[in-house]
Amino acid sequence: MTFSEILIHWYSNNKRELPWRKTKAPYYIWLSEIILQQTQVNQGLPYYMSFIETFPSVFDLATADESEVLKLWQGLGYYSRARNLHATARYVAEELNGTFPNNYKDLLKLKGVGDYTASAIASICFNEATAVVDGNVYRALSRYFGISTPINSSKGTKEFKALAQELIDKKNPAEFNQAIMEFGATQCKPQNPDCHICPFNKGCIAFNKGMIGELPVKIKSAKAKKKYFNFLVFISEDGKTVLEKREGKGIWQNLYQFPLIETNANVNADTLETLIKEHHLIKGAPFELSLYNKDVVVHKLSHQHLYTKFWVVNVGKTLTEGIPTEDIHHYAVPILIGNFIEAFNF
């Protein structure tokens, strides 16, 4: 049996029942692939179900407010994916009359759609023989063929894409692509794969040479920067608080947060009280400041680590720009803020 035949046979016996595998409608496949980028299936599945329930068609998604989309996305991270999702829905609905491009080349032109997503949609929906290459595929191929080229290098990207394209079942690309992604996710796992029941173990170079833990190879990224965030949770006598919308470019663009003072290191209450006055955040009114979390919350992003403190600021006056605390759950916030809101129990 060929590589593709072994793989597809394994898939027919081991595939998970997932809702997006019951359709070839481009909207649903596109939606699932965007949600599952950098997200595991068990985490992404509830979001997928919420999205198709709230936005059953690309037209429904296109006409939604961005704030509604971001709120539904809350907790998945990488919010640029949600903004691109919304922008592409509008483009498809308004410029393409709701019809997605039917080939890899034109799918690549959609905002937020790269090689992997375009290949998945083109193969699953339109039977185009273009191979998917994601983290699962990199891992499976690098181990089986014993390839040590770094997967996050330009050389590695080209090498693995070419290999996957060579292996793909030209007559059944949809099944092959879904099979190899499933194989990497559930069989050839990152840690402790059960190689003894793997259908490829006889020919797998990594297994036979004891290199499972060494492959795939990845170039180490630069050390994450440390940032120190102090969020000010204002509470007024009439039960209001303050949220600010983040403007400009950035990972949290258009999301809401508590007023923020960023410092160069951890600070105590006295230092922060002085900074609050210097920033004119209270405008001379008396206030009481207390630290909510005794232990610093470390929120790790791909390029930076946020050392975070939440400070409760009780003010006696009415907050003219405040919102009722019971309304705080209506706003789209980063997961860091969302976790605090749940814990604080507004």
Per-chain topology:
Elements: H1 3-14, H2 26-36, H3 41-54, H4 58-62, H5 66-73, H6 80-95, H7 104-107, H8 115-126, H9 135-145, H10 154-167, H11 173-186, H12 205-208, E1 225-236, E2 240-241, E3 244-245, E4 256-257, E5 260-263, H13 269-278, E6 287-291, E7 297-300, E8 304-315, E9 323-324, H14 335-344
Parallel strand pairs: 1-8
Antiparallel strand pairs: 1-5, 2-9, 3-4, 6-8, 7-8
Helix pairs in contact: 1-11, 2-3, 2-8, 8-11, 9-11
Cofactor: [4Fe-4S] cluster
InterPro entries: A/G_AdeGlyc_MutY, DNA_glycosylase, HhH-GPD_domain, HhH_base_excis_C, HhH_motif, MIG/MutY, MutY_C, NUDIX_hydrolase-like_dom_sf
Pfam family, one: HHH
Descriptors for this entry?
Endonuclease III, domain 1; 14 helices; Nucleoside Triphosphate Pyrophosphohydrolase; 346 residues; five-stranded mixed beta sheet; globular
Number of domain modules: 2
Strand content: 5-15%
Using DSSP, what is the number of strands? 9
- Helix count equals 14
Helix content: 40-55%
CATH topology assignment of the largest domain: Endonuclease III, domain 1
Description:
- This protein is α+β, with helices and mostly antiparallel strands and 346 residues long.
- The protein has two domains: 3-214, Endonuclease III, domain 1, CATH 1.10.340; 225-344, Nucleoside Triphosphate Pyrophosphohydrolase, CATH 3.90.79.10.
- Helix content is 42%, strand content 13%.
- It is built from 14 helices and nine strands.
- It has helices at 3-14, 26-36, 41-54, 58-62, 66-73, 80-95, 104-107, 115-126, 135-145, 154-167, 173-186, 205-208, 269-278, 335-344; strands at 225-236, 240-241, 244-245, 256-257, 260-263, 287-291, 297-300, 304-315, 323-324.
- The strands form three sheets. Strands 1, 5, 6, 7 and 8 form a five-stranded mixed beta sheet that branches. Strands 2-9 form a two-stranded antiparallel sheet.
- A hairpin with a 3-residue loop joins β7 and β8 (304-315).
- α1 packs across α11 (173-186) and α2 (26-36) crosses α3 (41-54).
- The protein is globular, with a radius of gyration of 24 Å.
